Amino acid sequence: MTQDHRNDGPGAGRAQSGSESERLLDSLFEQISVERAPASLRRRLRRIPLEEQHREGWWRRWLATSPGPRWALVPVLAISLLVVGVVLVMPRQPSEEDVLQARRDLAVAFSYIEEAGLTTGQEIRSVLGTELRHSVKDNLTDHLPFTEQFRKEETS
Amino acid sequence: MSRKFLMWVDEYQDQAWTLARYLLKDPAEAEDACQEAFVKLWHNQDRIDPDKIRPWLMRVTRNLCLDRLRRRHPTEEWQEWQKPDDGPGPMQELQQHELGEWLKHSINGLTEPYRSLVVLRDVHQHSYEEVASVLELSLTQVKVYLHRARKQLREQLAEVRP
Fold it and tell me: Which of A33, A36, A48 faces B38 most closely, judged by CB atoms?
């Protein structure tokens, strides 16, 4: 990489011309070789791996140290996420005992509803069944027990 | 990974330093630019072809130096930097050992991309192909620009050493 290519291309004109200034320039270039980097820079550059590893997150270090190429981790992570998602979304199958208990609870609930319906029906019939006959010629509110009670409270 | 990186540090730190030194002139800034370039190398080491580390590093170092110069010289000073330096006194008879220093100064006086070209080609002795890769120029452009740069230096040398 560092071989000298100075005698190729347009620069070859220098050699061909053979002028003194050309040769002098070449000799001067040999004098000013690459400068040695100062010790402070050398120290700074050698600290880069430690500093940058410290700065990077744990996951980047994990990625860096994981075997195989990084792109191979992408499908692995995607499949893992998919499995977790499916497990979370999938409906749970109830056990036979759960089903029996649910049926018992439903039966009790329906019996309560039925009982309440019957009681309410009887109450409506007993109140409205006889009183509605009088409502044809009188004010209906006069024949309802709760309105009587209400009137008493107002006058007292 | 660190071992490979430290190997590159050992191998290329002097070249990156020399290039930054010529471009920025200020040693402290040159150190910062070099460090920045190597930090970029650390973060991109897996993405770079190992055979092209040196041109990549030189290109990044140069671009960082030019960015710093633009920030440092937003208007007039940037244009000033684009102009060549005056160089040492004309028609002054110089000794051979002084001519080395004269040449460094003259290289600093070249405009871009001539300065980078001379540093990479004549000081670092990179191949034409590598210089073209660093400067993102065609091979023909590299040869033509280098010819012009050296012509400028020869003319200045002729003034110093008539």
Answer: A48
Position B37: which residue type?
A
Confidence of residue B125 (pLDDT cuts 50, 70, 90): confident
Minimum CA–CA partner of B19 in chain A? A34
Q: How close B39 comes to chain A (CA, Å)?
A: 7
Mutate to test the interface with B, among A45, A62, A70, A73 (most CBs of B within 10 A): A45
Q: Determine, for residues A10 and B146 on separate chains, whether the beta-carbon distance falls below 8 Å.
A: yes
Is residue A3 scored above 60 in pLDDT?
no
Give the containing element (helix H, strand E) for A145.
helix A145-155
Q: Looking at this predicted complex, what is its ipTM?
A: 0.70
**pLDDT above 70 as % of chain A:** 61
Chain B residues with CB under 8 Å of A62 CB are none
Chain A interface includes B44 (CB < 8 A): no
Q: Does residue B37 have a pLDDT over 90?
A: yes
Q: How many CB pairs under 8 A join A and B?
A: 115
Q: Above 50 in pLDDT, residue B68?
A: yes
Lowest mean pLDDT among A69-83, A116-130, A136-150: A136-150
Please say whether the beta carbons of B106 and A24 come within 8 A. Answer: no
Q: pTM above 0.90?
A: no
